[in-house]
Write a structure and sequence with these properties.
Length: about 425
Amino acid sequence: MSQNLKAVKGMRDLLPELAEKFRYIESTASSTAGLYGFNEIRTPILEPTALFLRSLGDTSDIVSKEMYRFTDHGGEDLVLRPEGTAGVARAFLCEGLAQHLPLKLCYQGPMFRRERPQRGRYRQFSQFGVELLGVEKPQADLEVLACGYRILKTLGVLGTVTLHLNTIGDQASRQDYREKLVSYFSERKSELSKDSLDRLEKNPLRILDSKDPSDIALLKEAPKLHASLSEDAKTFFNEVTEGLKLLGIPFEVDERLVRGLDYYCHTVFEFTTTALGAQSAILAGGRYDGLISDLGGPKTPGVGWAFGVDRLAELLPERQSELAVISLIPLGQEAEMKAVMIAEDLRGQGLRVELGYSGNLAKRMKRADKLGSQAVVILGSDELIKGLATVKNLKLGTQSEVSISSLGAHLKSLS
Ligand code: HAM
């Protein structure tokens, strides 16, 4: 195949089996989020570049190296959205949604990050996310966390999953901590990795989630974030952890969890799995009380998360099709056309029907078997004249003659 007709690196074709898993995950998530009052919002895939520069932070990996950014023919500076929260915040401002607070919105769709592709990490991937705007209390964090937990539970993937939770405090807590951290690492610059040295200048908190062994060793003795927390931040986090205990949602406090985006404050969390290798975060988020005001809006607290549909699809057990397949096999010229009519009638009754298009009976039976058919309906010309068809129940190995007029009811009684 010609080189330039390949899919773009890191971007996948979702073939039917995988696409069906995506659909199932997204519809389960959306109906579960509906129980919490989240309503869907659809925002554009292209957003002005300034939106992400102002919300995610210049030093975030996304802004510094991963955005698909371009200038269109009209000279506008645009980005293929790398995540959904900033777009929801922009829509909140542009659509005058402040009068509807508190507001619960959910979204799903493709996101784009030019990361190094590997298992579970793609350059185009899908997220499903929820955002709860306008509630400053820890109860909102709890609702949002409970919603994520319930979705993972409903999908049956909790077995390998742990909820990691942390607080990065309010602005005052972080300012105090940043100073202590900078002073600690400034005396140990020669031992820091190159990336962390860079972060020391720009965003020292990010050193905490470094994977470099020498950084990790240094972090053991480093000042602790929790020691810098204000009383308010401590009380807030305490209410979140106590609430999780009451809800029966297990979690681990991970003091090194800081998350890579600038808009977070207070609660941050990640549900990770041991089943996917390095790309272990499946659902992640936190509180972002400063985001909307940073974008020029009124002070509006927010908390939310997003999960990677691609990653959850890998965790999902194999799924059986929800509708049993019925295969129609016409024998003879006249039966071929009649079969199209009968198939249409059966579909009208809610049955999933496949037509055996060509080949002898054996070949068509083989295809019906391959499709996992529950039953095969053989339409022979002679039988059709009598208004009858032969129904083979492939699951039980039985066979019976059924009148065409009661075919639908008979086939439904099989499942
Ligand atoms: P995030 O941690 O950047 O947060 O992404 C959330 C989830 O999206 C990740 O945990 C992962 O499952 C999935 N994901 C991220 N990048 C990739 C990739 N390259 N390939 C496959 N899956 C990926 C956010 O995006 C925030 N907007 C979440 C949020 C909502 N915070 C508050 N509200």
